[in-house]
Amino acid sequence: MNQRIEAIRQWISQEKVDAVLLNKPANRFYATGFTGSAGTVVITPDELYMITDFRYKSQVQEQSPDFTYLEIDKHETAIKYINNLGFKRVGIEEEFISYSLAMSYEDQIPGIELVPMKSQLTKIRSVKSAEEVASVKKAAALADEGWDMIQKKVRPGVSEKELALELEVYMRKKGANDVSFKFIVASGTRSALPHGIASDKLIEAGDFVVFDYGNLVNGYCSDMTRTLVVGQATDQQKEIYDTVLKAQIASLEAVKPGITGTELDLIARDIITEAGYGDYFGHGLGHGVGIEIHELPHVNHLGTEPLIPGNIITIEPGIYLPELGGVRIEDLVLVTENGYEVLSHSDKALVQIPV
Ligand code: ZN
Ligand code: ZN
């Protein structure tokens, strides 16, 4: 935890601000370990405060012992303490706090100057410690166990929702604290929806079924996608699957420090385009994963910064044909000093469910 505070304090001294205010839950958790749903973290060159209401008093003392608890009424903001503590130049999460909160800081705190942190903390968070990697690995390992189990439950007549629920319950019983996002189980033509949340649709013979899911362990997310076919795959289904797999493997194997997210995206996109499906890969190759399911670094056309060891990213190309359905294959990958380590271990050969 101290290294995290140190990193924030480096920014504080660089920008010559009096304090940094954190309200975004992922940043608050990262800096303090506090899992409550309300509170303003205040970090100064030599003090640490957590401003929240009495519901969280004992939780702050337990989870964030280095932070001084300052109590406000449930409907108050941190303003009175910012005023009392005499802060003038204050770092804020400009991409998170509301316009009205920023306005009330400016209206009620004479002489305050708000300094945008420009995703500084999100950038710090994108490099994971060994402890953070261990939590993501645990979450990913549970997803692998889930995949072994759930493919045996797929058959015509079962609904997408039943499969999603069964998968969640299984992984929660094995130790997942929560899901990392609402599971996607999308079958038949619905599999062509990149974000097809599990519905009441029943699985049918001939369907592609996309499973995209993940767990939360110790506050860290996992994310993996596998696609199977119910029955014997047609030649076209095989061709689409093989193309996505080829693109997935090629971009995955290129992961190393120094390469950019844009370059990785292009490797996969070129393979899919060459196979004639360029118009049907309508999203970026991947994203960073950590406390949030989507975080830095960018692994798409916005990813101009070189990857660095400690980044955890997904590699998830797909092809989506509205009439036929879609295929996506997604692995979670750690960028290491020498290249990469794949954190998703589920097999990627096409699974054809006997019907
Ligand atoms: Zn996913
Ligand atoms: Zn993903």
Topology:
Blueprint: H1 2-15, E1 19-22, H2 25-32, E2 40-43, E3 48-52, H3 57-63, E4 68-71, H4 79-85, E5 89-92, H5 99-108, E6 113-116, H6 120-125, H7 130-150, H8 160-173, E7 178-179, E8 184-187, E9 208-213, E10 215-217, E11 220-221, E12 224-230, H9 235-253, H10 261-274, E13 286-288, E14 295-299, E15 312-315, E16 318-321, E17 325-328, E18 331-335, E19 340-342, E20 351-353
Parallel strand pairs: 1-5, 3-4, 5-6, 12-20
Antiparallel strand pairs: 1-2, 2-3, 7-10, 8-9, 9-12, 10-11, 13-14, 15-18, 16-17, 18-19
Bound molecules: zinc ion (ZN) (2 copies).
Q: Would you write up a description of this structure?
A:
The protein is an alpha+beta fold. The chain has helices at residues 2-15, 25-32, 57-63, 79-85, 99-108, 120-125, 130-150, 160-173, 235-253, 261-274; strands spanning 19-22, 40-43, 48-52, 68-71, 89-92, 113-116, 178-179, 184-187, 208-213, 215-217, 220-221, 224-230, 286-288, 295-299, 312-315, 318-321, 325-328, 331-335, 340-342, 351-353. The chain folds into 2 domains: 2-125, Creatine Amidinohydrolase, Chain A, domain 1; 130-353, Creatine Amidinohydrolase (Alpha-Beta Complex). 34% of the residues lie in helices and 23% in strands. The strands form 6 sheets. A 6-stranded mixed sheet has the order 4-3-2-1-5-6, with helices on both faces. Strand 3 (48-52), helix 3 (57-63) and strand 4 (68-71) form a beta-alpha-beta unit. The chain is elongated. Bound molecules: zinc ion (2 copies). One zinc ion (ZN) binds next to loops. The site of one zinc ion has 4 residues, from loops.
